[in-house]
Please model this.
Amino acid sequence: MAEFLTDIETLRRRARQEIDKGPVTDAYGADLDRVLQVLNEALATEIVCTLHYKRHYYTATGLHSEPVAAEFLEHAQEEQQHADKLADRIVQLGGEPDFDPDTLTTRSHAGYDAGTGLIDMIREDLVAERVAVASYTEIIQWLGDRDPTTRRVFEDLLAQEEEHADDLRGLLERIPRDAEKD
Model:
């Protein structure tokens, strides 16, 4: 057996202690309360972004709106999946996901801007994605090796948020500037 591993009897004894903590053991190195708070803030961010994209999907109009609206719907569905992953992790760590609609926008990293006109909608969504990219990057760095599972959740979300930002930038590059009047 490798020398770095705690002896088996000690591991077995520790596993039986505080069994109600589920996956959170003595080896968990992060501040659990703070991690749960950060996860709930990210959950609020994802819910607000889902709502943002859904509104834009339903209200996008104009000559160029059909492919843009389809992108908005795809992103809304992916943001909802992100929210579900975060809620799952919160529960796994023994916390409670905070879905309180009264405080969603104050806890969210991204703001909520309804946007008017197709170009404004894309820009506002791109701003929200850039906020998510920046905040999730900081969270990943902050977590480091103290909670590798939560870090991987954020790494997965970050990859998709970067993809969303790239998609939106591409839309802005392809849509003629006169579409702002749409």
Notes: DSSP finds six helices and no strands in the chain.
